[in-house]
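[recover] target loaded
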């Protein structure tokens, strides 16, 4: 799941080398995504549409593995 979020984020941003993804938890996974300050708008999108789409993809991937997952986009 961490690799999925990292791949999506790096595809969206202008500074892919500054993308950082951390994963914690066991059955309930929490993923934190951090990108460059200039790229925050690209990851969040208008009204949070892009971030919500990424969360939906994450939720589906987690369900396939029998887990629950949440995504937090943090500021650098």
């Amino acid at each position: 799941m961490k690799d999925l979020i990292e791949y999506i984020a790096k595809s969206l941003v202008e500074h892919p080398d500054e993308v950082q993804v951390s994963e914690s938890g066991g059955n309930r996974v929490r993923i934190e995504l951090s990108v460059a300050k200039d790229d925050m708008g690209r990851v969040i999108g208008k009204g949070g549409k892009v971030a919500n789409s990424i969360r939906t993809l994450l939720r589906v991937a987690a369900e396939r593995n029998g887990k629950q997952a949440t995504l937090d986009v943090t500021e650098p």
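[recover] notes: The mean pLDDT is 94.
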